[in-house]
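Here is a typical protein record:
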Amino acid sequence: MSHHSPNGDSLNVPHWYDPDSEILNIERGTDSYVWDTDGHAYLDFCSQLYCCNLGHSNDAVRRAMDEQVGTIPYVSSAKHAPVRDELASRLDDISPESVSYTSFAVSGSEANELAVQFARTHQDASTVLTRWRSYHGSTYGAGSLTGDPTTRTTLSEHAATTGAGKFLPPTPEAFDTDDPEALARRAADHLEYVIRNQGPDSVAAVLIEPVAGASGAYVGPADYFDRVRAVCDEYDVLLISDEVITGFGRCGEWFGIQTERVEPDMLTFAKGATGAYAPLAGVIAAPEIGEQIAEEGFDIGQTFAGHPVACAASLAAIDEYADGVIANVRENESVLADGLAAIADAHDAVRRIQGRGYHWGVEITDPETGEPYHDPLNDAGENPVHDVIAHARENGVLVAGGRPAHQILLSPPLIASATELERGLDALDDALGVVFDD
């Protein structure tokens, strides 16, 4: 029997599937570029899903994977393997001093769920606090942590998600101030209020992105994370840094929280751990947490957690990051920052740019009202942000939409040169002009 799919010839249903959208069919890639099945080339200015940090043709990672396959392709996640032990040691070397013990997972969603399990066990408390306008995954556990309303609405339509509370992000709109000092103080005081109102003994952890990921790349004002760390210490609440996007050089340091000079109790990682050459994720925990788990054990797991081929890929990727890739981010961050500032000056529809390293968000609003052109929860009409993304793609540059959908995200491979960054910015500038200014 022949079957016909609604999205063309493929019987594969993509994730984040919109039946009204035109879905690219990508068949190959080299460095910062990908090609579709029609032979069109695109500068991958979003690293697919903010994960192809090393581009699409890194020979060192591919060789490491091939060698591991030739040695042994799979070892049970309930057993030790030399490649896993070596990677855990390397992660200890590059991570913040406060964390050292690694437990592996498969995806960022599962890593965040694992960190929450560790936190609840260690603290003997059930509630985890996360920010509105956050994204921590789309499985039921991680989805309960996610503050993005679109994800939460989709997940909770047929079943409740529990065990998480929410607090406001440190954005000017949330606290009615553009002054960084006042914003940091009000946002941290608000978090303290939420913890006190929830009952400190019931709060296991605060899970937070050091730089917002899919929710817009916004950063905390100066001293915000110092204040968050102090609040967590005062009420004996663990601080978990979600580094699924911000880890492995994306923000100019090994992990995003290191750009804030704050020590977490745990951090989670995925995406860039292998440069997306294989699925790998995990949790790096403070010694007191890791030692408790090591001594008491825990009776859960995943078949492909810490897959040996993925661990080999990660070891090679770490060598690549250390050998000039993270330095490239630091050297060229100003190209993105300055270029986006010029774009914001040139287009009234750009309300704000924000970000760090090679991860930036562009907020689009109606200059006459200060409000988004489109509310994804209430508006059924066209979203002009989608038109900007489509026009950039027509010009051979892939950018992403943020959560909520009045934002554009730029997250190029960490190997991208200044010339490639400028090309991506030019495409965005042109697309904004076509959609909003012509």
